[in-house]
Each structure stands twice: as structure tokens, then as C-alpha cells.
Amino acid sequence: MLSFIALAARPEFTVSAVDCRDDHRGWSAEQPRADVRLVLVRSGGFRRRVRGVCTDLDRTVGYLGLPGEEEHFSHPAGGDVCTSISLRPDLWRSLAGEAPVPAGSSLYVDGRLDLAHRRLLLAARDDGAEELVGLVAAAVQQVVTGPTPAGTGDGALVAKARGVIGDDHPAASGLIPLADLLGVSPYRLSRAFTRELGVSLTRYRNGVRVSRALDRLEEGEPSLAVLAADLGFADQAHLCRTVREHLGQTPTALRRLLGANRTSSQTKECADASPTNAHELLV
């Protein structure tokens, strides 16, 4: 028995938790699929056979599934829990190249890939695109032998991206639509931000949104839910987590702080404008 829980669903990719309770030594055939899949095991294990090659999969070995493959699976040791990442073909090509040549489908999960997997699972509830790109890029370095996308002029690229984010263009909502707008691969754009500014694109974009949140809180915005929606956060909880991460305080605490400052300033202005002596009262 299989169960799927969607962790993230974007037009360019999906991330799902797959729980398999099968326990059989025979092979079950799966219908060929049209997507590119990266599957990493979280617990348990199973076997996969494709093009006559059988691979035992567990937490140390995952696999890359390509469109049109005839796959067979076996679960001789019981069930398993996996993370299945489905990529849109154009996103895959932007990361692996226009004509990627996989050296194989098995993927060794070293410490770096394991950490990238865990970071993706933590980030999937928010955006997760940058973590996904990092994970897939690490996998590409293992299994793709052909040339992968590269480029120069990262300073100009980052400047353009910052302009798009500053203008609050719809494409600034995430790494992948922003890369599409700028005509570069998500991997290149992500790496360029880190090299040029020392922070990830996600953190930079969130920093801009946090600054705008402060503006709204200072103006007296009463609804955190409305604020989160207006600024492009997934929900109010996402807004609160991000603001706390960047500023060390919750939006509610900041609203009180900024409101107190505003009240104090207004009181001072009123005091300055009020008459201060009997002569002024008579004038």
C-alpha cells in the first residue's frame, strides 16, 4: 500500500513524502512516467530494476528516474519512507543542460546530499525552491557527465535580480520564476547571489519583505494575515518565522514597539505645539 503526502507543489516541481507498506520479493511494474524524478530514502529500503539493472536502495543510495523508463520495484525487507521530487522537464534541463548524459541512475547520498535533503524538507512548507535547486545540483554533479549550464557576468545578473525584487515584480516570488524572467538557470542565479552578496537569494528577498513588513507595522497594520498575504508569504506563520529569524522578535512584539515609538512621537509633537506659559494662553 502506498500513501503520498504533498510537501510542496509548485508549477515547476513537486515534493512528496511516499510511505510504502508493501512486503513482497516479487517485482511490480510501474507505468512509464513523463517527469524527471529524484528519489531519496528516509527509512527502510527497496529494490529498483531499470534497463535490466537492479539496485538496492536505502538511506545511502537514491535514484534518478528519467522520462519513459520502464521501472520495476521489489520490497523484500518490508516498507520504506521516501522523498520523491518531481521536476518539470525545462527545470531539469536548466540544471542539467539541454542534452544531459546520465552516467547511471543510482545516486550515492553523501553527507552533503543528506544535509541538502534535510534542508529541503524543512523549507518545503515555505518556498523550498532554493533548497531544491541545491539538492538537484548536487545530484547532477554525480550522475550527469555532459556539460551543465554556466555563465559569466554575475554582478550584472545580481543587479538585475535585485531590481526585479525591489520593483515587487510577480516573478520575484521565487527563485525559479525569477530565473525564467532573467533567462538564466536557477542554479546559476542562486550561486551568483551567494558569491556576490554573501547571502542566498531567498534570504535577500526575505530581507526586503521584512523591511516592508516593518513599514506596514510602523504604519499601524492591524492584521498579520493581511500583511502576510500582501507581502507574498505562504501564510501568517511563515511571516512570523521569517521576521523572527531576521530580527529576533515577532511581528506582534515589533508592532507594539513601533506603535509605542509612534505614540511617543505624536505625544511629543502635541506637547511641542501646546502653549507652555500663561502669556501664550492669553495670546
From TrEMBL:
Residues 159-257 form the HTH araC/xylS-type domain. PROSITE patterns: HTH_ARAC_FAMILY_1, HTH_ARAC_FAMILY_2. Keywords: DNA-binding, Transcription, Transcription regulation. SMART domains: HTH_ARAC. GO terms for molecular function: DNA-binding transcription factor activity; sequence-specific DNA binding. Gene3D superfamilies: Homeodomain-like. It holds the Pfam family HTH_18. This is AraC-type DNA-binding protein. It comes from Lentzea waywayandensis.
